[in-house]
Amino acid sequence: MDRKSPRKRADVTDPREEYEDLIIEWEKEQVSVGDFSDAREMEAFLSRWVAVGAVFDENGRILLAYNENDEQWLLPGGSLQPHESLREGLVREVHEETGITAAPVRPRAIKGWVIQYEDEQTGFNIVFSKRKQ
């Protein structure tokens, strides 16, 4: 991964070490030098971990958060802070984005995203979890 990032990464126990039944997907993309440089400064790439959760109510409806910048509805989530576990990051992000306090059940899937420019690469992992409201 990115050997030059000076910022602190999230110190997360990789769920792939704990759960054998996770859905795992990887994506790798070649990008321009400008896109690579910009991405290295993005919160997700600096942290290396993004937590996203599916929160269901008692009627089976899923909680979505509206992102005004992208003009779309998304599962709540975001980049983890250096001191957070996946569980803590999920709870914080859901509450920040929706005002709901959720209880993470467990990770269900991980998508790794790596971008590369020439011989340098960087990336992050998105962890999808199911949560109860």
Structure description:
The chain is an alpha/beta fold. Helices cover 20% and strands 40% of the residues. The strands form two sheets. A five-stranded mixed sheet has the order 1-6-7-2-5. It is globular and about 50 Å long.
In which range does the helix fraction lie?
10-25%
Give the terminus-to-terminus CA distance. Answer: 35 Å
What's the SSE pattern? EHHEEEEHEE
Shape: globular
Summarize the biggest pleated sheet: 5 strands, mixed
What fraction of the residues are assigned to beta strands by DSSP?
Answer: 35-45%
- Are there runs of 5+ residues with pLDDT below 50, and where? 1-6
Q: Can you count the helices?
A: 3
Mean pLDDT: 88
How many E-type strands?
Answer: 7
Major sheet: order of its strands?
1-6-7-2-5
Structural class: alpha/beta
Cα radius of gyration in angstroms: 15 Å
Annotation keywords:
single chain; 133 residues; alpha/beta; 5-stranded mixed beta sheet; two-stranded antiparallel sheet; 3 helices; globular
Quick summary:
This protein has 133 residues and is an alpha/beta fold. The protein has helices at residues 33-40, 43-47, 86-98, and strands at 23-30, 49-56, 65-67, 72-74, 77-79, 103-117, 120-132. The chain is built from three helices and seven strands.
Set out the fold topology:
Layout: E1 23-30, H1 33-40, H2 43-47, E2 49-56, E3 65-67, E4 72-74, E5 77-79, H3 86-98, E6 103-117, E7 120-132
Parallel strand pairs: 1-6, 2-7
Antiparallel strand pairs: 2-5, 3-4, 6-7
